[in-house]
Amino acid sequence: MPAVALVVMAVLAAAAPLLHRRLGRNTGYVLAAGFAVTGALLATGAPTVLDGGAVTASWSWLPSLQVSFALRLDGLAALFCLIVLGVGTLIMAYCPRYVGDGGRTGTVYGLLTAFAGAMLGLVLAADLVLLYVFWELTTVCSFFLLATAGRVAVAPARRALLITAAGGLALLVAVVALSVVVGSTDLSTVLAARDEVLASPLAWPIGALIAFAAFTKSAQVPLHSWLPGAMVAMTPVSAYLHAATMVKAGIYLLMRTTPLFAGQPAWSALLVTVGLASAVTGAFLALREHDLKAILAQSTVSQLGLLVAVIGVGTPTALAAAMLHTFAHALFKATLFMLVGVVDKETGSRDIRELSGLRRVMPVTATVTALAALSMAGVPPMLGFVSKEYLFQSLVQADVAPWAGPVAGALAVAASALTFAYGVRIVHGAFGGPVRQPDLYEPSPAFLAPAVVAASAGLLLGPGIAWVRPVVTRAAADVVPAGEVPQFEFWHGLSPEVVMSAITIAVGTALFLRRDPVDRALQRLRLPDGAAVFDRAHDAVLDLGSAVGRPDRSRDLAPHLARPLVALGVLGAVGVAAVGGLPERGPTDRALDWPVLALLVLTVAGTVLARSALAALGLVGVVGLVVAVWFLLAGAVDVALTLLLVEVLTAVVAVLVLRSRPPRLPGSDRPRTVLAAGLAVAAGTGAAAAVYALTGRRGISGAGAWFLDNAEPQTGGTNVVNTVLVDFRGMDTLGEAIVLGAAALGLLVVVARRAPEAAPDRAARGRPDGTGGGLVLQVAARVLVPGMAALSLWLLWRGHDEPGGGFISALVAGTAVGLHQTAHAFPGLPRLLRPTSLVGGGLLLALGTGLFAVVRGEPLLTPVEVPLLGALGIGSALLFDLGVYLLVLALLVTAFDRLGGGPVPAVPGPSSGDHREVAATPDVPSRQGAP
Amino acid sequence: MTAAVAVGVLVAGGVFLVLQRGLLRVVLGFVLLGHAVNVLVLSAGGMQRRDLPLIGQGDPAAAADPLPQAFVLTAIVITFGITVYLLALVRAGDGDEDAGGDAGGDAGGDTGGDGEPDVAGRVPADRTRGAR
């Protein structure tokens, strides 16, 4: 049944914007009815709950964490459900006459209903994780509801979100810690494990985190600054979220966790201190404000403070008193907000310095406001009087220290006297004094009705406390099962509390009578502005982040690249310190190595020193060739072949890129050169030392030997490297080929296709001066390209047994494409070679081959016999290799297509100015030669 | 020993180039570093056995370790892919990143030591481009 209630709320929330499209602002009445029905639904569980039972429902949610979607309707949950749905019904019935018909109203209705659902979930949750989720949902709903107020709400909404979300994170940490200590996230189990929790070293952090979470949500000093800011939201939102319900979530959390911490001196001291500080501060600030909503916001801080303090006392009476006052506060504060909304709507102002004498033109509004204010001020016979009596009674029992009770009582009286004063101030400010706006009139009964109902409840339930008693008694018994819960009475003799109430009223009256001097004195006070403090802290955090990230925003590449090098150096130093006792080095060098090495040193030195881009490029290519020879000497023929082809292709692509760039490389300043040289020498030495230390000291690796032994028997291939690539480590190869495909697609995005260089103009092809390459190249291409294509396919075919394979053959094919493209001045690609088709086809082929094995019930990429082609000697390995081939080819084709073609920029000459201006226009007839 | 020296030379050259101005040199440095790592991986397989790892050709006991070869082979192709991509970035960045002017100027305060302007009139033109 609790779950049905949540589902109903979710459906209502989703339907609200749709209903709004049909019904406009009157949607509120439908939603009010929906809230009432949900309440009735939950009320069917009342007999069970009042008998001391609970209605539960549970579904498995995160079984691996033993977290369940568990709901539990017990006394405390029932009390809060009553508040959420009761006040919610009234607010929804109030909304239609308050809101406009504008576009945002549907959103507001949806969010308010979603919030009500989240709040119900929060109080019904029987699992701590679920409770946390709903807790955050209320925060999010509150944020979006604030945001509907538009631009003015940006700063307050951010403040509210950051503070309450920080509390939410604290709650999450507390939940995790509790589940670590108790081994369960089930609420009842955790609450029953008081001894375990208190004995663990995490007891203090858990208590502090829970208190922090509650303080943020319930706007306790010094985290209260978000609540007054939240008043930018429309009045129904303020009344519902920021007075009656959401801010009570913190109170609910403290009540729920009372079984864990009640009676702990630190817990009591913290809650009583913070609560009373908030109570007095809030009341003080409320008396200073002139905006009716601001007064009410500060008043909420104050009243919540009293509740926190009383919960801190922790006795059964205190808890029961807190629950009763939570209920009373929801009633009178929501009423006052609704009436402020009425006044605001009718007069266009909320400032008590501008309002005056409304009692004459709006007598009903004035009366209802007075009733609610009296309840807030704790004047008999209102419900607020009864609850405040019990608050006083509980606070004087505070036993943290011998003097704690009297001090707490005195502070509570002080806060309440201030409350009385600002309560009267609200009524007098708006409704007293001379009439200034005589042509106003009473709002429609429909607008006033919800407030009248709530105020009347506050009036009737004081003497009729017996009607509230069962629920509150039951709720208190849930939290303090062992203790004896008092039976609330409207009048319980001439007790000390009555005297305290009398003092409250007397002092409050005096403050009101001397209101002008009091106001002047208060206005002179310079108090720290919580919002400003928060904003400064927020800005400071942003500045800190900016300072920390500044090195990473440098546009120079060197600092970015130097850091990993330095980190690598540190790692190497650690390695040197850690590694010791190396085995003997075997004989690793051959005589032929030395000349190759000498050539390598020369070419690398040449590359480093080259000032011309073309020279540097050529030398890098030569370095690659030397390295390829090195690989050949090391017995890696496939690797050498691959590198050879890659070097050729790299050179071609690099030249294509270089065409549009200055022929000289940029110079460098001396400090940078010295620093770079230093780092380079250090890195080179370190790398050489590491290689010397860590290689050549053992025989062949176990894996290597295994591959040599098993390659042929298992795959039928004799080229072990190729079998490793396509058979044994096919998954790696697939990943690598996909990287190439991704690079191809990246190229398509990064470099836009240049305008085809006079593609339709056949006469332009083969210009001797352009990239057309001339007749010789064209003839060469015509002769060579078919041969290269055939060679490529042959290499692919034999790759399994002899040097070759997908990578190498694709590089050959790519070279052929490059030759053809260069010879014909980049005429664009034939349909067959469209990069996207090649990437897609390659991926599909490689993945499909792999998945074929899965279909047959074997691991991904297991080599299998291909049904028809097997007879021709084509295995799945070849098809897989073909996929790799297509992906590699895709990259090459893309590179030629995107980097080649387009107009060739002129070699910069004295007249060329900004050559890119030339480059930007595709059809400039005169070009000044090619690189 | 020779492998160690080869790796050292390649790393030193690569690091030096990577720390220079201008994306093209960085790309070239990157290529050299790729070579260095490939030589390293191959030498990690052991430089004592250097015969081709082809079954049926030569003495299997002298055949080189095929596993690092497979690693290096794919690494070369991947390095190539990344190099092409980097070169494309060089090309795409033409006009933003040129002649080292902007590459070194993170706050606009980098006026000195910008290298010689290669052609009269180019540097001011680039400056205005970069500032846009």
TrEMBL record, chain A:
The chain crosses the membrane at residues 75-95, 107-126, 132-154, 161-182, 202-219, 231-254, 266-287, 294-313, 319-343, 364-383, 403-424, 445-470, 490-513, 561-582, 594-610, 615-633, 639-658, 674-694, 734-752, 773-797, 803-820, 832-855, 867-893. Residues 906-931 are annotated as: Disordered. This is Multicomponent Na+:H+ antiporter subunit A. It is found in: Cell membrane; Membrane. Keywords: Antiport, Cell membrane, Ion transport, Membrane, Transmembrane, Transmembrane helix, Transport. Residues 776-893 form the Na+/H+ antiporter MnhB subunit-related protein domain. Signal peptide: none annotated.
TrEMBL record, chain B:
It is a multi-pass membrane protein. Residues 101-114 have a biased composition (Gly residues). Keywords: Cell membrane, Membrane, Transmembrane, Transmembrane helix. GO terms for cellular component: plasma membrane. The keyword Cell membrane applies. It is found in: Cell membrane. Residues 97-132 are annotated as: Disordered. It comes from the Bacteria. InterPro entries: CPA3_antiporter_subunitC, NUOK/Mnh_C1-like. The chain crosses the membrane at residues 27-46, 67-88. Coiled coil: none annotated. The keyword Transmembrane applies. Pfam families: Oxidored_q2 (PF00420). PANTHER family: ANTIPORTER SUBUNIT MNHC2-RELATED (PTHR34583). Belongs to the CPA3 antiporters (TC 2.A.63) subunit C family. This is Multicomponent Na+:H+ antiporter subunit C.
